[in-house]
Amino acid sequence: MSRWKPNTTVAAILEQNGRFLMVEEDTTDGRRFNQPAGHLERGESLIEAVVRETLEETGWHFTPTALVGIYLAERPESDISYLRFAFTGTLVRHDPSRALDDGIIAARWLTHEEIVAQQSRLRSPVVLESLHDYLQSARHPLNLLHHIR
């Protein structure tokens, strides 16, 4: 009997001048928009993972300051589920010369309205769900998270 295990992912919700940092990426479902996001790797904390993924996908360094929410997304067409931890924080600096991860077309700054207009091209419904939580000021302290090494 196989044991069900959701994939653990992290995402960054970063706003600057009324626009949100998104990535346009090639996926098996075609071109999609997502927040800077990716999988937790063995040995790293959730915070380390979101900092790494954001840098790899956008070239932006940032410091997480709050947890926006935790989302369990099930894909009815498969046995795959994702447990996503969405963070927000402070942008530190951008490294425009940094090569982005394979599959990333570009980092884009989009307004909330532009993201909603692209709803059919979002990587997951969690993108909009977490963005709405962010816009409603959902912020939880990072000390909720513990990494026991």
TrEMBL record:
E.C. number: 3.6.1.-
Residues spanning the signal sequence: none
SUPFAM superfamilies xrefs: Nudix
Tagged with keyword Nucleotide-binding: no
A Pfam family reported for this protein in Swiss-Prot or TrEMBL: NUDIX
PROSITE patterns referenced in this protein's UniProt entry, alphabetically: NUDIX (PS51462), NUDIX_BOX (PS00893)
The UniProt record lists the keyword Magnesium: yes
Family according to the record: Belongs to the Nudix hydrolase family. NudJ subfamily.
UniProt protein name: Phosphatase NudJ
Organism expressing this protein natively: Paludibacterium denitrificans
